[in-house]
Model the fold of this input.
Amino acid sequence: MQTVNPEETTGAREAGRHAEVTARWRARASATGPGDRAAAESAVRAAYREAGLPEPAEVRWHGSPLSAVEAALELRAAGAVSVREAVRTLPWEAARRRAVEEVGQAGWSAHWALTGGELGPVTTPLADRLRNAVLDRLAPEADRDEDPDEAVEEARARRTVVRLALLDAVRGQHDAPWFAAFEAAGAAAEPVAPLIATAREAGWWWPYQDVVLISERPLALHRDEAGRLDRADGPAVEYPDGFALHAWRGMPVPAEFLAGLAEVSVERIRTEENAELRRVLLEHYGYERYLADSGAEPIDRDETGVLWRIVLPDDEPVVMVEVVNSTAEPDGTFRTYWLRVPPSTRTARAGVAWTFGIPEADYHPQRET
Done:
């Protein structure tokens, strides 16, 4: 008769709960489309009551964080007082203390790794992109080399004002890492429960003394297999009022840049002045195709493969090893792979060895696959 270890059973049950809670909050963090406005407004009012504050006289919905920040700037200019500390900060601290007490100080790191740590890469880059996009749209930086000193100072002051308005925000669905950690630890009750209920239905929101501003969730959200914002034929993130972010494999790009990807040429790649955008063009065009169309020549060739080098203006060169799989495909052909290696690579063997994480001198394959 097999003996069941109670500790192992409990551990498996806890791991399953962590996974279930984290998966649920992962979905909420990426949720798109309208939420339940009535539920969100009810939760916001409950958050005010929980903080010991009078309920807001008005709740205003906005089509994106951009328009919400514009409204926040108007409120701040009119003397509105943020109540974020009472509504969000203090309940948050109480929930975190309770969560740590539940799992133990020593167990908190492991608990966070299985919950909030899993969701951070999903929410943090997107939240940062939204913040930076709003900041750049409402308070673009001045050119210190071309603009007069007073224009630079005005731009700096404007960015400070917009940053302060952004700091008034509660990030709703993008606070999912913490909500997952609280819930999995059994610390999702009052006083943080109203914040959790709001995050299920809304994006960012701004609590002021008499008015609450709430941003709708995005209409659409596109990511690649690595979870990065990514879309070649339109916005990677799009809000109901038209505010949008464009990205290619996680890198911010202008909308007009993506519109021209269909007509990329070798000359277009060579003449692109922005090094990061040039890399995007090169990836979209394809390294193998670029090597063929640009007339590139190999810099080294041996039994392991062929080393190619693409020289780009004002940027580090792209160095790649062309290798042929020694195992035939079902149709009898042998597949060719292109492996990008460090710019300092000088031989094909060194490049292939690098992909295996070993020095060139130690690379002696008995049979390559």
Q: What stands out?
A: The chain has a mean pLDDT of 89. DSSP finds 14 helices and twelve strands in the chain.
